[in-house]
């Protein structure tokens, strides 16, 4: 009998006692609010605080105008670039944790996880302080600049002009760097758990049979870690696409992402139906990404 | 000479290779340098946080005397505490429900429950903004009731995480133990309390820590849900960062980072390093 599910009809009382609270909560405080947003997305503003749900598709038509579509595509591009950088930085880190001495492994993992548990706003603020015109990043670049200038004088050339601090914040570069900073732990953890399950004797066999480290990595490690890579990509891409705080604080006027546009509809622009349509488009985009992932996951299962 | 005496590097000891160590070191530097600079400079005796001017605790004093900052911190901790307790109950019930019963529309319920994890924060925040406006949720209640809207929102996105962690733990439970208890005369409730609950306890601890951190961390959903007079720590820090960067923010942030580290070490004591890393 162990492991078998009980039919709810044979256990009506315990089932009701256990199921009622979670189902009730989910229906009232998740399904109902989402349903209202969905309905609003087919509505129009009828007054300052009055929305008439008329079944119009105008909000969606407006959302696919180039102005908004381009912001949407740009958000996708920024999120994809963030994910790619996280993957490139994160993969060697995950490898290093996997092959570290057993007594070091948990501490390295903890080192990756502690920032993940630290408040997002504080982390963003800390990075901003470092990147300001007077911050250490500018000082470091200034030091490199002066070093280069000194080298030039050493070989008898004119020294470079004095270093002027550059604006590192409030542009697209800052947004991508901020998103990488925030999402890196999301990528490393699933990669590690995939690499940890990998049969290490396969790598040894590949090396013994004459393949180099790079070839082994590309042809053995990467394919076997594919489920972890897909999971890491999803877990980074999805929140990065919906990121609000990083582009808001670190971005400039031209680096707003879709979440910032949605926020504006609900605060300054006060166009709730249009904001509702945009946020449902973002949710649909997430669904498409997740559907693609599960299709990919099913395929890998079939191959095995 | 120790460098030369150490054993040769085996093919799989990637971690002992220099470039690999450098890579990990640089990544850790990238992750920790901003936080460490922030913490060190919270003790700096200068308004402009650029050069070290000497040690001072005056910004901690200022932060702790800043009534609205302290109020925000107390609010955040209260919300996190309440949201954790309620999410723990709802999440554990949801996990037991999905693990134990077969019922109609189970797939639908399960799928819907994972949605608060997937749906972008901004969409959830917007949904709560509209929902609480629509039902005309009172905003002028006395403390702590004025935090109810935010707490409800936090519970909604925290309890699915708790359910996930607890369910993973339930998978290793032997149902025969529960049946044996019942055969020996335990009631449904006694079997739950004395057999099932002790088994899922590590899952509950992990879930509670996760819920507490998620709640304390949340800015976007709170930003949309909070009324004009209720302010939480992240929302307060946001407005301080936005409008005037003061060293007080460094001091208050350092306190919150320390709280995170302390919570992590409590978790370590309770579960051990392995237990923590396995729950993620």
UniProtKB/TrEMBL annotation, chain A:
Transmembrane regions listed in the UniProt entry: 15-40, 76-100, 107-131, 173-195, 216-245, 272-292
Principal location listed in the UniProt entry: membrane
Keyword Coiled coil: no
Family annotation (InterPro entries): MetI-like, MetI-like_sf
Recorded GO CC terms: plasma membrane
Keywords: Cell membrane, Membrane, Transmembrane, Transmembrane helix, Transport
Pfam family name, one: BPD_transp_1
Top-level taxonomic group: Bacteria
Residue span(s) of domain ABC transmembrane type-1: 72-293
Family note: Belongs to the binding-protein-dependent transport system permease family. CysTW subfamily.
Protein name as annotated: ABC transporter permease
TrEMBL record, chain B:
Stretches that traverse the bilayer: 21-43, 79-101, 113-133, 145-166, 203-224, 249-268
GO CC terms, sorted: plasma membrane
GO biological process: transmembrane transport
Location of the protein in the cell: Cell membrane
UniProt-listed Pfam families: BPD_transp_1
Chief localization: membrane
Cross-referenced InterPro entries: Bact_Polyamine_Transport (IPR051789), MetI-like (IPR000515), MetI-like_sf (IPR035906)
KW Isomerase (keyword) present: no
Membrane topology label: Multi-pass membrane protein
Domain called ABC transmembrane type-1: residue spans: 73-267
PANTHER family linked: PUTRESCINE TRANSPORT SYSTEM PERMEASE PROTEIN POTI
Annotated family: Belongs to the binding-protein-dependent transport system permease family. CysTW subfamily.
Protein name: ABC transporter permease
Organism: Sphingorhabdus profundilacus
Lineage: Bacteria, Pseudomonadati, Pseudomonadota, Alphaproteobacteria, Sphingomonadales
